[in-house]
């Protein structure tokens, strides 16, 4: 009997892992939260260990489901402004006025002999 339970648990773990791999971050969190809700007390800890997610992630998914997903953005992975920052910050192209100002500054700082070639 105990062996049958362990085999079923391993099969369940495999099936959960296969399913969760196919989902995006938000969906994975919600499914894990749903599994934890159905298990009741200790469900968050059990599901987190079963599928390899952090307990806070499973708990967050559970609480989002209990709140009817009202805090979850629709049609987005993350809330606006969330996520990693860009590795390369985009530098705006200088305007023509700033280019002229830069050239004038360069010209004014050079000695007169540097401005002429003769």
**Helicity range of the residues?**
55-70%
Instruction: Give the terminus-to-terminus CA distance.
Output: 100 Å
Average of pLDDT: 78
Shape descriptor reads elongated
Number of helices: 6
> How many strands, what sense, and barrel or not for the largest sheet?
none
Low-confidence stretches: none
Number of strands: 0
Structural class by sheet pairing and helices: mainly alpha
Strand content: under 5%
Rg measurement, Å: 29 Å
Order of helices and strands: HHHHHH
Protein architecture, described:
The chain has 118 residues and is mainly α. The protein has a domain at 1-72. 63% of the residues lie in helices and 0% in strands. It contains 6 helices and no strands. It has helices at 2-21, 25-39, 43-51, 55-66, 96-109, 112-115. The mean pLDDT is 78.
Topology summary:
Blueprint: H1 2-21, H2 25-39, H3 43-51, H4 55-66, H5 96-109, H6 112-115
Which terms would index this structure?
118 residues, mainly alpha
What is the structure about, briefly put?
With 118 residues, the chain is mainly alpha-helical. It has a domain at 1-72. It has helices at 2-21, 25-39, 43-51, 55-66, 96-109, 112-115.
């Amino acid at each position: 009997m105990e062996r049958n339970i362990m085999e079923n648990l391993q099969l369940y773990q495999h099936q959960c892992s296969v399913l969760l791999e196919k989902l995006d971050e938000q969906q994975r969190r919600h499914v894990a939260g749903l599994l934890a809700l159905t298990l009741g007390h200790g469900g968050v800890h059990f599901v987190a260990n079963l599928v390899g997610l952090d307990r806070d992630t499973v708990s967050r998914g559970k609480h989002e489901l209990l709140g009817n997903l009202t805090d979850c953005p629709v049609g987005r992975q993350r809330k606006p402004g969330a996520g990693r920052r860009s590795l390369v910050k985009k530098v705006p192209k200088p305007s023509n006025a700033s280019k002229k100002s830069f050239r004038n500054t360069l010209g004014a700082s050079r000695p007169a002999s540097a401005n002429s070639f003769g």
